[in-house]
Amino acid sequence: MSTENSAKNSPEHAGAAAPAVPRNRGVGMLIITAYGIFAVSSTARALYQLIGHGEDAPVAYALSGLAAAVYILATLALARTSAAAWRTALAAVLVELVGVVGVGLWTVLEPQLFADATVWSHFGQGYGYVPLVLPLIGLAWLLRHRPGARRAAAARDAESSEIRE
């Protein structure tokens, strides 16, 4: 085994390398599953609200529809591994975070506009605050699995091994 290979297999090298697991595998699959569950549940909720009671709380129900669309988009983008899918997932998760914080705050400040709850009402209280935590987990996962991270880590490693020699 050459010095170069043993350096690549050293514990300090392993910490610097980009994740070897694709974004949509391992923990990523759990995140995608959580988003898929929210996509289905928020879509069902929005359809029920809009079709059956649309005039009762139009703002809340429209926001339920928006949440459903965001969860669907995030789920589909997170499941793919391309750079374009990464950008789409990042945008969707950021919209989700802004949505859950914005709508959560809005429902606290102007509860009369929300005759019925949405997925994001009171920061996702009706869903155990998962809608507030999920985008934070999604963002952390996406930032850890940026496109080109492996190439950047390899370039850093090559540069540091040249400096050591």
Q: What would you call the shape? A: elongated
* Overall pLDDT confidence: 82
Judged by helices, strands and strand pairing, the structural class is mainly alpha
Cα-atom radius of gyration:
21 Å
| Helical run tally | 7
Total number of strands: 0
Question: Termini separation (Å)?
Answer: 17 Å
Largest sheet: none
Poorly predicted ranges (pLDDT <50, ≥5 residues)? Answer: 1-18
Share in helix: over 70%
Proportion in β-strands: under 5%
Helix-strand string: HHHHHHH
Structural description of this entry:
It is a single chain. The chain is mainly α. The chain is built from 7 helices and no strands. The chain has helices spanning 3-8, 11-16, 27-53, 58-79, 83-109, 130-144, 149-164. The chain is elongated, with a radius of gyration of 21 Å. 27% of the residues are buried.
Relevant terms:
disordered N terminus, elongated, mainly alpha, about 160 residues, about 0% strand, 7 helices
What is shown here, in short?
It contains 7 helices and no strands. It has helices at residues 3-8, 11-16, 27-53, 58-79, 83-109, 130-144, 149-164.
